[in-house]
Structures are given as C-alpha cells and as structure tokens.
Design brief:
The structure is a single chain. The chain has helices at 2-29, 96-136, 145-184; strands spanning 35-41, 43-45, 48-65, 71-76, 83-84, 89-94, 187-189, 194-199, 206-207, 219-234, 246-251, 259-271, 276-284, 295-303, 308-312, 317-318, 323-329, 332-344, 347-352, 359-361, 374-378. The protein is α+β, with helices and mostly antiparallel strands. Among the domains are: 36-47 and 307-378, conserved putative lor/sdh protein from methanococcus maripaludis s2 fold (Beta Barrel); 52-59 and 223-302, Elongation Factor Tu (Ef-tu), domain 3 (Beta Barrel), CATH 2.40.30.170; 96-185. The strands form 4 sheets. Strands 2-15-19-18-17-16 form a 6-stranded antiparallel β-sheet, with no helix packed on it. Strands 3-10-13-12-11-14 form a 6-stranded antiparallel beta barrel. Helix 2 packs antiparallel against helix 3 (145-184). The radius of gyration is 47 Å and the shape is elongated.
C-alpha cells in the first residue's frame, strides 16, 4: 500500500513540473518589434471660419442740445420719442433784454449812418473849395499859394473822416447782426432728422449756457435711421480687415432673426487695455427696429491671405514648457514645436516647422519620446 502511494506522488510531481515549463518557453519565443502608431497627414487649405464676437449698436449721430442764451422756456413742441426733421423748432426761449440790445444796436447804426451823411457833405464841400481855389490860382496874384495848400489838406482830411464814418457804420451793422444771431438762438431747432430720446425742460424753466456741456441738456436727439455697430476685434484677427465686407449679427430682442452691417471704418490702432481694434459697421435701420445701445452678437469672418496648415486636434499635445506634434519620419518619432491658431471642425490651425503632407501621430502623447522606432499605420483622415 505504501509503495503505491509513493508511485502516485512521484507521478504528480512530474506532471506539475511539465506544465510549469511550457509557458516559459512560449514567452521566450514571442517576437519583439517597433510599436505600431496611427498617423495622419498635415493638410494645407484656406482658413474660413467665423467667430462669435460681442458688439454694441450706437446712433450714427447723437447730440445733446443745450441753450445758447440765458432765458426762460416759452414753448416746447417735442417730447421723448418724437420724430423730428432737420430745422424743426422743438422749443422757444424768451429773453426781453435781447429786444433792448437790438434796439440799441439799431440806434447806433442809424446814428453812424447820419454821421456819415454829414461827413460826406463836408468832404464834398471841402473838395469843391479846393477845386475852385486851384482853378483860380492859375491866374497869378488872385489866390495865395498857401491858401490852395490849406484847402487841399482840408479836403484830404474830410475824405479820411468819410472812410472812418464808413467803418463805424460797418461795425454798428455787425453789432446789430450779432444781436439778431443771438435772437435766432431763442428758437431751438433739431440739427438733423431723428428721434428725441430725452426731454429735460418744461415751459417757464430758466435755461442758459452757463452750465456748459457738462450740465443737463434740454433735449437729446439721435439719428437712428442708420446705426453704427462697434465691434472690438482681437488683434490676432485684424490683419485681413477690409472695408465693404458684409457681416451678419443678431440681437436678443429678435431671436432667430439675422441682420447685417457693412464694414465702414477701422480704427487702425489696438487698444492697449483690451488688445482689440475697434471696427465700425454701418447698419441700415429704415424701420427703426434696432435701438441704439443694444448689444449684438456678431458672426465675424476670419480669413487668411494664404492657405494654412491643419492637423487633428488630438494630434497636438502639451507639456509644461512646450506644445508640439509628433512627426514620424524614417520610422522614427520627432517632436515638432507648434503654435495653434483657430479651430475648424475637428482640425486645428498650426504654425511651426511643418509642411503639407508630413506624417504625424494621430494621437499626440508625451509617452512617445523623440527617436522612438515606430511602425506607421495610416488612420482615417479627418474631414
């Protein structure tokens, strides 16, 4: 019995030794080779994407109307929301002291004209006396030569007085015109066609220019038939700005509706605080749908003058100190530093030491160190 148990134990040990050596033989026989890596090609194509930028609609023209003379408001013929045309009277001011000033200026003008008439008559008389004495002096001994000289000087002086009187009349006339111009300021008119957005005066209120432009205006008038859409464009996308381009935008007041404006003015200077360049679009607003001060979402087109290089977004990887793609050349990997630009679908614009057609790893990772031997395998190209 003991002999049989000994034989069975030896058989079990032999079987276990045989099964343990077989996997070791298979592992030693497994082949080793380069790592397979899916690669894609660098594409070269024109960039044509659209960015969503904020914008603000402002009035094409806007003016705060202040009183130009001191006086009391007599009538007000426009209110908030009133549409006015250029030259329409929107308020009148009364200033009784201007009536007195005009009467005084007219009196001075009349006095100057009377003085001119007297001076001109005296000058004509003196000229006539001189002419007669000069004619008489042709006969020797009739008129003394000194009398002729005195008459000539007197005629010249009278003529100078006539010129002075004429200048006095012109000054008096200018003073009268100035008073009349000031009286014209008593009629407050709209400088252009538009809508009144503010009214801050009522009949009987005292107004005047003493407060200056910093004070509260009588009215605020804006031209909303045409608006300006101001868009701050980031400096990275200002190289291809051109006037005349049509740009679509939308506003919250009309969801689902699209409007458009035309690039009209470019600031040509970058604001240091925001690193943006202000671009103005002209927006026609004949029906008055859009209001100044409204914020807009602008679909801003970005284009390049030359085609750009694109790679799949997954091909770009970053570490703490660099951004790169992994190019496969001659069965070896190499890291190529790149700078990314805009995204167009699954592709991203890159700038670096790449050329169209270069093979790069479809999925970038820093685990693929430079100089690693790989077996490239074409992946499905990104659309």
């Amino acid at each position: 019995m003991k002999h049989l148990l000994t034989i069975g134990f030896l058989a079990t040990v032999a079987a276990s030794c045989g099964t343990g050596t077989a996997p070791h033989s298979n592992a030693a026989a497994a082949p080793s080779g380069p790592r397979a890596v899916e690669v894609v090609r660098v594409l070269e194509q024109p960039l044509d994407v659209a960015l969503s930028l904020p914008g603000e609609l402002t009035a094409y023209q806007s003016v705060a109307i202040h009183a130009r003379v001191n006086g009391f408001v007599k009538t007000v013929s426009a209110d908030r929301g009133s549409r006015v045309r250029a030259g329409d009277i929107i308020a009148t001011i009364e200033a009784p002291e201007l009536v007195a000033q005009r009467a005084e200026a007219q009196s001075k003008l009349q006095a100057a004209e009377s003085q001119l008439a007297v001076t001109r008559a005296r000058a004509e008389s003196d000229r006539g006396t001189f002419d007669k004495l000069k004619a008489a002096s042709a006969t020797p001994g009739v008129v003394a030569g000194n009398d002729v000289l005195i008459a000539e000087k007197t005629a010249d002086a009278s003529q100078s007085q006539v010129a002075s009187a004429q200048q006095t009349i012109e000054a008096a006339r200018q003073s009268l015109n100035a008073v009349r111009d000031i009286e014209g300021y008593l009629r407050v008119t709209a400088p252009f066609s538009g809508v009144v957005t503010e009214r801050n005066v009522h009949p009987g209120a005292f107004v005047g220019p003493s407060s200056g432009m910093s004070g509260t205006p009588m009215f605020q008038v804006v031209d909303n038939n045409r608006l300006r859409l101001v868009v701050p464009v980031p400096e990275a996308y200002t190289s291809e700005l051109q006037t005349g381009a049509s740009v679509p935008f939308s506003v919250a007041a009309y969801p689902g509706q699209s409007f458009s404006g035309t690039v009209a003015r470019i600031a040509q200077a970058v604001e240091v605080a925001t690193r943006t360049m202000a671009v103005e679009l002209d927006v026609a607003n004949p029906r008055g749908q859009l209001a100044p001060g409204t914020f807009a979402t602008v679909t801003w087109p970005v284009r390049r003058s030359a085609p750009s290089l694109f790679v799949p977004s997954a091909s770009v990887t970053s570490t703490t100190d660099r951004t790169f793609v992994i190019r496969v050349r001659g069965g070896k990997t190499e890291w190529v530093d790149v700078r990314t630009g805009l995204t167009s679908g699954p592709l991203v614009e890159v700038f670096g030491d790449l050329t169209a057609g270069d093979e790069i790893a479809g999925r970038g990772t820093d685990e693929l160190r430079p100089g690693t031997a790989v077996q490239p395998r074409q992946a499905k190209p990104a659309a």
